[in-house]
Design goal:
- The complex is a heterotrimer of chains A (237), B (287) and C (294).
- With 237 residues, chain A is mainly α.
- Chain A has six helices and two strands.
- In chain A, a hairpin with a 2-residue loop joins strand 1 and strand 2.
- Chain B starts with 33 loop residues before the first strand and ends in a 5-residue tail after the last helix.
- The chains are: A mainly alpha (237), B alpha/beta (287), C mainly alpha (294).
- Chains in contact: A-B, B-C.
- At the B-C interface, helix 2, helix 3 and helix 6 of B face helix 8 and helix 9 of C.
Chain lengths: 237, 287, 294
Amino acid sequence: MADPSFRPRPLNVRRHFDEELRELEIKVQAMSAAAQDLVAQAVRGLVENNSQLYDQVIQGDDEVDFYYLDIERRIVALFALQTPVATDLRFLTALLHINLHLERVADMAVNIAKIGQSVVDLPRSQVIITHLSEMSGIALKMIAASTDAFARRDMELATKLPSMDDPLDRLNRGMMRAILPISDDKRMLQWAIGMHTVSRQIERIGDHAVDIAEQVAFLITGEFREFTDASHPDKAG
Amino acid sequence: MSKVMKRSSEITLDIKPVPTGGTPDDRPESEPIFRVRDLGVRYGGLLAVRGVTADISRNQITAIIGPSGCGKSTLIRCFNRLNDLIPAASIEGQVLYHGVDLYGPAVDPVEVRRHIGMVFQKPNPFPKSIYENIAFGLRVNGMTDDIDARVEHALQGAALWDEVKGKLKSNALSLSGGQQQRLCIARALAVEPDVILMDEPASALDPVATSRIEDLMESLKEDYTILIVTHNMQQAARVSDMTAFLTVEVSDDGHRTGVLVEFAPTTELFTNPRDPRTEAYITGRFG
Amino acid sequence: MSVGEAQAFSLRGQGGKQNLYEKTFVVLLLVAVLIGVASLITLLIDVLRVGAPRLSVDFLTSLPSRFAARAGAQPALWGTLWVISVCTLFSVPVGMGAAIYLEEFARKGRLATLIELNIANLAAVPSIIYGLLGLAVFVRFFAMGRSVLAGGLTLGLLVLPVIVLSGREALRAVPSSIRDGALALGATRWQTVSRQVFPAALPGFLTGIILALSRAIGETAPLITMGALTYVTFVPNSLLDRFTVLPIQIFNWTSRPQSAFAETAAAGIVVLLAVLLAMNAVAILIRSRYQRKP
């Protein structure tokens, strides 16, 4: 009658909670990958002047939105049902912020795609495109690094993010210098002004990456400190 | 698991085999295991609980929460007819178990309790050996084939086997509080019930023992339906799938009656309760 | 805190007067205990001192006689054993059954309260009344004659209320959580009572039985009333034989003028105490088997 092979599972008293937390780790990594893909696609669209890519980006945003809502709902439910404290609490609040930042990153990709769509017939400058390519490369690396720091709870990596942001800021400021010489061709100027907006979008993607790293530092240390304060640029974290 | 209610000459009950595992959502035709309709309990003529209407789903954990005096224990004891032991108590309304009225004229309460087991607030093992504690239930229910194996299976099911396998003959009262409670759970499991009622099973235990009971409950719900009364809201939030909130209504002449305020999936009730009384209670702003 | 402030806050308490009062009270309680214990020890020592010379196998196997040196307790001893056996066989099952029924199965109400009150009263009725009852009911009405059977049953009635009362207390002392637990497993009322409640209450029952039988073994008046003999030269052979018991025999010896009978009486008392101790030891042994603590 009794099953001799019956062996009870090892005891894990918050098994359900731990499983939910693991789910969230997986989902946020997938969301970050999806957001990074969108940014890469949008910029590639600019580089290749491929409007199909722009459509894919705009559609692909739905996937990221789905992740966003799902993660948000799960976190709220876990707050209500599991009364998390200590590391669990910091994890969930950090994740709440990171979730938002990643969703914004995807929105930025959509913005870039929309700008690309609006200037698709205009003449382009290779210099500026190369400039933007370089910027997006850095920004994507930053998002990947901050997400990686979160996955591995890597404090050292997290604190590197502000310094990765410096070249991005420089390149962003340098955009104006790159655009000004184009004043002769009005149409190309129009395109270039669009690219200026794109450049600002990419720069903000970098900012979101730094914000994500701040959350990682909070999760690890329990102290929340701003890495870089926009109103006090000399007082770095 | 097909069971027949013996001893009640008129009523024969054939329960369709319940597929184990999976969530109720997987089974499109899963009927609620209990249908409660306008249930009320009177003690000596005065209503202690009134107007409870709810459907309890199988293979789920349903929690009953509420302030003290709201009739939670009185309510749960309606499900295994333990209120019958109180001479002054009487029942109104209906409790249908697999479609059969638990309080029907031809229903034998002893038979009811063979299908619907109970674990009490204060662990109450019999003052006998661990083995005999479980064997008693087996013997009174005629499940005497291979008692040794059944005892082991029950103790495994309650996550207690490894701790007591070497001392089955020692007195049950020598176990710690948490172990005693798991023994009471094993005792209930041994008679192969359909439903397990738990009346504040962990309130007399320390936090570690409480966590073990909660983990046990989560694994038990694969094979049983569990109703749990708890005054610990966080516990209800952690373990249950559905939560019922009862509160006390005071009548003009000062008499207190328990009423069902809200009955909803636990996630909903704890993130967005519909009734302001529920909100007030679970946010701790009451009294 | 400065020295001056130290006086305002002190943990010294109320001082000597309180302690003296407490100590005096404890001493008084101790004296009460000692009075009881000392009396008992004095009695035992005296009896053993006086009776020991007469104790022998002969004493236990001889019949009573006009001659103190030859008087023996054999008929009385056997009479006691017979009568107490009948008493036990009657009162223990009936008493336990009544206690179980009244406590576990009877519907609580005015009638039940009335019965409980009456049983308590019966326990306090003077024992000689039971003698009269035994005479009327067992000796005459049931025509048992002045026999061992009638005597045993009379004593049985005497101790029955004690057994019922202490049995009910023992059952009440079993926590209701045990009953709830058993019933919740699908046990019937009878299974719950017979397999869980009663075994748990057994030590309490046995304590009551010990008390009851210890009282019964020393009863003289009711047995004389219903017709026990005071001078018997035969050992009872059947339930319907006439009989005497140790307390009566002892009384008989103490009322003899010859001083030598004082020794015989003391020896008789020792025998009675020995039987009492043996009975209690058996009961305590049974009780401790059921009282295995964790």
